[in-house]
Amino acid sequence: MHGVLEDGSAMNDVAKWLQQEVPDLHVRICDVGMGKEESIFTSLEYQLEQFVICVNDDPLLKDGFIGMGFSQGGLVIRGYLQRYNHIKFPMLRFIGLSSPLAGEFCGYDSLCLFALYPSDWLNELVHNVFLSDFMFEHFSISSYWRDPYHLQEYFQIGRYLLDLDNQKTFNPVYKQNFVSVDKMILFGSEHDGVIQPWQSSWFGMWKEGGDSDVELMEERDVYKQDLFGLKTLNEQGKIVLKNTNNNHLNNVHNQKFIVEELAPFVKMDF
Q1: Which superfamily does CATH assign the domain made up of 8-103+170-266 to?
Q2: Terminal CA-to-CA distance of the chain, rounded, Å?
Q3: Where are the domains positioned within the chain?
Q4: How many CB atoms within 10 Å of residue 4?
Q5: Residue 145 has pLDDT above 50, yes or no
Q6: pTM of the entire structure?
Q7: Would you say 108 and 135 are in contact if contact means Cβ atoms under 8 Å apart?
Q8: Cβ neighbours of residue 158 under 8 Å, at least 6 residues apart?
Q9: Residue 228 to residue 190: CA distance in whole angstroms
Q10: What is the predicted pLDDT for the residue at 116?
Q11: Integer Cα distance of 101 and 234 in angstroms
Q12: What was the pLDDT predicted at 26?
């Protein structure tokens, strides 16, 4: 599954290089709606629906598949794993390529996306706009925008990410499905340059009140309380953290990385 501001063609090289390394590999590239614009101007709920249709329209995946999501696509496939793995074609393994699995935020002490310069007034504007029904429906990033300066509002109003973290209404099925994979391989990099903090690719996130100090996966409440199975999966030794040293786009454009680091994990015996 591709990332934001992309369509399925962004994953063509990845598919080609993987199939060269694993000749019998069947690859299904899923797309969002009608192209790149819909990857940012539609909700993640809609994008998840498109992914569900894409996967379950391929009979070769009925006995199980390896889900791989790049950037925002990692959150889409996480939604599939937690919400549908017990009723649809099962995801056997999860691979996240530089995905904001714990959310995204930038703008005060960290820079990314639109934030070319730190600005209090700009970030207050973004905060007020992002937490609105219109933006949840029409701007994908708002679904996982986790503002450490306004966490109480996030807990009251947040949707997609808050739901998957089981912090909205606890759903035991989400946890059951999350721990059903044999491995969860999470690629991230301190040189990413887009995901903020980059440790979000490893389920880390900014500490409440600022965007300079990171709360690592094991330090977060969602981990300690094992709300959706993260602690269980980690204690079972099924979470693999890989530092790519790539910038964001190199995770899908660097052939050496795809062949040497990613390809082994698309073999279920690895």
Answers
A1: Alpha/Beta hydrolase fold, catalytic domain (3.40.50.1820)
A2: 22
A3: 8-103+170-266
A4: 19
A5: yes
A6: 0.94
A7: no
A8: 131, 146, 168
A9: 26
A10: 46
A11: 15
A12: 97
